[in-house]
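haha ok so turns out i had the wrong file open the whole time. this is the CORRECT one, sorry everyone. sequence first:
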Amino acid sequence: MSDPTLDPDLRSWVPVPEGSDFPIQNLPYGVVSRKGEPPRIGVAIGDGALDLGELSLAGLLDGLDGVRHEIFLADSLNPFLALGRGAWRAARERISGLLAEGDRRILDAGLAERAIVPVADADLHLPFIPGDYVDFYSSLEHATNLGRMFRPEGEPLLPNWRHLPVGYHGRSGTVVVSGTPIRRPFGQTAPEAGEAVPAWGPSRLLDFELEVGFVTGPGNALGEPIPIDRVGEHVFGLVLVNDWSARDLQRWEYQPLGPFLGKSFATSVSPWVVTMDALAPWRVAPPPQDPEPLPYLRADEPWGFDVGLEVGLAPEGAEVVLFSRTNLRGLYWTIAQQLAHATSNGATARPGDLFASGTISGSERGSQGSMIELTEAGRRPLELPGGSSRAFLEDGDTVVLRGGCEAGDRPRIGFGEVRGTVLPAGGVR
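then structure:
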């Protein structure tokens, strides 16, 4: 049966600019506050956000199974995420109906001015509180590119890479919302030529990573894995992710246990979580996998997503220049395989946990998702307007990631953006 919330002809009584990331077919969730007021749950529509707390207090969200008034008055999505797919689906259908052209329930209740918050006049907060954060390494092109750089004399991919989605456990406390400034980290780097001890100082090889993450809902009990055919019950939606990386710190520290301080200083996410329901028309078959994965990693559903992605950079005082474009559909290890593998040993996933894809890169020049790939580890700096160039990020640089689904007659389903500006180092000197 077709989903009426995805009807391409559906329109809202709220004005939605042409080409907006947030038509009525999208309705991504976030946490929004008017200046000086407490944050509440909202959904993006056009240039505004619908305050679900106001609607809930007015009784317009009554009757949704398991959804109490206070859930939409919360300062994070976590309580809502815990309710599961039935509640998520019911809420989406009700909100879509309230916003649809011809529906006057919000207008007749005199709520429109109070319930529609102009995003330009609001604060957007971290939409969920991740108890755990896992970052994967799921792009074949990215893993191959870095393998050639880090192990030039050996095979680019280690023997395990094609058999399981490799990942590491990140630091959830440094997951921040788009717009949060990023302080250049201090750390150890490999000894300079002729030196016996490592150097200590600000990272000189600061990088971005273009990623997409998924946010989990109800989760599983300890010792009970989430089978791949039930992943859909646990994934609420997708966000854009920039997992900032200090490549010089990373290279010195990552063996034998993997990333640590070179990754843990900051991870930026978009303020809007695009739901799996909104993304349903954009699901595609993922790339073929060779060899065939083990049975617990085989899915019957298509778990690829046709999401166009792009990266731009703005030196201090300058305009954003786009220099990389790629697509999520090329990701080798899917989000279903990521969650199934992450819980296959009985580890838990909880409401609000974040699982990121790892850097997403294509095979063509200009489709790589990190500076280290785009500049070939600094050997081919990016040329910028005005005669400047970048091998890696400099203080004052702003990195902007954007993403969205666009094809045919369907309205664009966008993610907004992830934006972060590099500040000078301020650590232990």
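Residues 133-423 form a domain with the Fumarylacetoacetate hydrolase; domain 2 fold (CATH 3.90.850.10).
again sry for the mixup
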